[in-house]
Amino acid sequence: MSTATPTTGTYLIRQASVLGGDAADLLIREGVIAEIGADLLGTPAAAGATVIEAEGLVALPGMVDLHTHLREPGREDAETVETGTRAAALGGFTSVHAMANSSPVADTAGVVEQVYSLGKESGWVDVRPVGAVTVGLAGKQLAELGAMADSRARVRVFSDDGICVSDPVLMRRALEYVKAFDGVIAQHAQEPRLTEGAQMNEGKVSSVLGLAGWPAVAEESIIARDVLLAQHVGSRLHVCHVSTAGSVEIIRWAKARGINVTAEVTPHHLWLTEELVRSYNPVYKVNPPLRADEDVQALRAALADGTIDIIGTDHAPHPDEAKACEWAQAAMGMTGLETALSVVQHTMIETGLMSWADFARVTSFAPAAIGRLADQGRPLEVGEPANLVLVDPAARWTVDPAKMATKGRNSPFAGRELPGAVKATFFRGHPTVLDGVLNTPYPGSAS
Amino acid sequence: MRHLLSTEDLSLENAVRILDTAEEMAAVGEREVKKLPALRGRTVVNLFFEDSTRTRISFEAAAKRLSADVINFAAKGSSVSKGESLKDTAQTLEAMSADAVVIRHWASGAPAQLANSGWIDAAVINAGDGTHAHPTQALLDAFTMRRHLAKLAGTSSIGADLTGMRVVIAGDVLHSRVARSNVWLLKTLGAEVTLVAPPTLLPIGVEYWPCKVSYDLDSVLASGVDAVMMLRVQAERMNDSFFPSTREYSRRWGFDDARLAKLDTLGLKDTIIMHPGPMNRGLEISSAAADSPRSTVLAQVRNGVSVRMATLYLLMSGELRENAPAAGTTPNETTLNGTTLKEFA
Fold first, then answer.
1. Closest chain B C-alpha to A39 CA, distance in angstroms
2. Which domain range does residue A52 map to?
3. B204 with A215: Cβ contact below 8 A
């Protein structure tokens, strides 16, 4: 958006390590990065600026989540746009894509515009609605994809997430149709017949626990089909929350063939395994399910080598009662916005698999490119929109879901000590987070 | 050890302790006055989320013979459809000061959740959860096998395990909590277990279980077996293409008259035929097999009460140590609040 208003202040970020590299001063003014220099303190441009000491902090582009469940409209008991975007800002995000499985489903221009407007009013991050592929997520008939694309929400990402577009003809048509406005189909790869009643990854642990198995092949067979469809019709495919080593191999093969496919992994699939299900604690129930350690290692390697393009949180808040019940009855999903950065730091950076520059690629540049966002996921350069985050990589904190901004208390990381803390988030030049706590929304928004 | 949730983590010491105590409880069952004062004033709740008259009355008889007060709480159907959560049900029982909760649930893991959630302070005994575990069934099966071995050897079963016993468990392993609990308990007790089933009714991951697996019942029988346990096959499995027809199932995996006769031909005169019940006569087991002198079906039911008495008593009196078995320290005599069982006799 080029509608930067003069109401945002002037900030001088002192001595931040830009993408983990050399320390520099960044001057933010009127929503953009106005100057970058070795030492801008005392320069005329910085006169009157609010100084933010950032020595030891890493400056990163604002994170972009392609996969967030904000639950509004319909499930405001689980999350609202307001609470979900507060959580996003605290987690270092400046843009989130709100998944379409709300109630009513975001399958019309009206609903996506409503979600878009709620995001604007909240003012914590850019909210980009994802449009449903099919009417009511029912998998029968294409939703009005063009109308959503042309709406004020300018939808480019379409997904029936939570449900697989399993009908191959419908999937083919969707992939073809969105070419008209450079859209992308984000597939939730789950063959429905192979996963009827499925409760957890099918294998060693499910055999012992007596929980119905969720075979890897149910994910991999859909991905294999869809990359071939994408190749056949020459369209763009995005694979949501890849969870198995086999899926990684198929995507790697597809990319090698030049197929236009991108893929996403959640922070939790980079760390947690099915062994946790032995507790029968439904906080570990998620779709796709937690897999085996071989899968976790394959996902990490794939993210590091670019086979998997992005981190998507699949932030899925649920009210307590949806988790305080029998495993088989419990809702699937985990919160993730406020732990994503730390979990990726733990699993990818502290393991030496990725640098902070790689982190910027997988959490900001690449997801913004997939979502066709013009003013998010931009490099930290002069003249670019000031969407950026300051992270203290040396910080350590213990996850307490009760203290989170999201309404969801269903964090699988509760009680774990995580590295890395978001100290500040700048959203279009305005600090939505300062000193690690929520500041104020973007000026002029309603909240 | 406060709860009995599965046999996977039951130590050899505790398993033998339960079986030995069950022998003493069995002796009580043979007296005219079948009652001990051991749990007088304590409350046992039978919390059944799934119909199972057999298991419920077995636990009820066990608790009553120990003089406990018994409350039967039939929460049939799903807790969600009922509008009350497992949590609220548990807290209701807590408020009523239940000392032990015997839980039967259609959902795998519900007993573990109850035990670990902090919702309730009572001892939790798993009376069958989903397709996960049914530890007291496995214990009563082991008790039955142990008595059989002792009878053949002309020795006492007290203190004995099942070393060297060859056990075949045949049928729908995939959906069977009985099979799961037996595999681990029998392994702990030293038996050699072979599962026999159609490949469709074995779980992916069974290769990690401590047992052998075969698709061929006849060859397994021919290689020698001391106990054959047939599992119930539910008719609805046929509708989901686990096997082509009940007739084909019976021919390949049922314990039919031909296989009963084969035991004699093979010279396996002491091999017993077990079934956890209820039986589908003519499907997984023929009537001749079920009613033959080899059948232990009724003995299993009888032994169930003794094993459940032992489990209730030992858990509620805190007499089972945590799962760190110290070899050779198993006491020979069970004491009930400082008094030996014999004093009640």
1. 55
2. 10-59+382-438
3. yes
